[in-house]
Design a protein that fits this description.
Blueprint (H helix, E strand, L loop, with lengths): L1 H20 L10 H23 L12 E2 L2 E2 H21 L3 H6 L1 E5 L7 H17 L9 H4 L6 H6 L1 E5 L2
Antiparallel strand pairs: 1-2, 3-4
Helix pairs in contact: 2-3, 3-5
Protein name: Putative RDD family membrane protein YckC
GO cellular component, one term: plasma membrane
Organism: Pseudogracilibacillus auburnensis
Length: about 160
């Protein structure tokens, strides 16, 4: 009886591995609007986090921003919170809260788990490119016109965003 249970468990594990690593799996890619709404939800969350975490800095320097050359301390810390939120949520959950709400997830093109390398390029470098100048946010439109609904940051990070089935 024990060998039967072990064989059954092994067969189940093999089937699950084939589902996650099989190149023949058909994914439904998340389009521009689904990703836009997820990003908007995430930006609201990050804005709220920054408000909570950075509001004590208003009591320093008589309420004036602390300037470091071209940037302020609030600006630098706010950017760190922004990038850390996207990086850690995607690494540990495969999705941010906005993606969770809308039922979409980030997957790797090559393997079943997202690597730190891919995510740093997707979530930090890719998003940094979009945020350098406001006009570069128009690059998000690449998602609407590419075959696999990949944005520039997906191409850089070797990832895709798919619907959870």
């Amino acid at each position: 009886m024990d060998s039967y249970n072990e064989n059954e468990i092994e067969e189940t594990e093999i089937k699950q591995n084939q589902l996650t690593t099989s190149p023949n799996v058909e994914y439904k890619y998340a389009g521009f609007w689904m990703r836009f709404w997820a990003y908007l939800i995430d930006v609201i969350i990050v804005f709220s986090l920054n408000g909570l975490l950075l509001s004590p800095l208003a009591f320093i320097n008589n309420g004036y921003p602390i300037e470091l050359s071209l940037w302020t301390v609030n600006g630098i810390l706010g950017a760190i919170v922004y990038y850390i939120y996207f990086l850690l949520m995607t690494k540990y959950f495969g999705q941010t809260i906005g993606k969770m709400i809308l039922g979409i997830r980030v997957i790797s093109e090559s393997s079943d788990s997202l690597s730190w390398n891919d995510l740093v390029f997707r979530e930090v470098v890719g998003r940094f490119i979009y945020n350098i100048m406001f006009i570069l946010k128009l690059l998000y439109l690449v998602v609407a016109f590419s075959n696999e609904k990949k944005g520039l940051h997906d191409m850089i990070g070797n990832t895709r965003v798919v619907h959870i089935s």
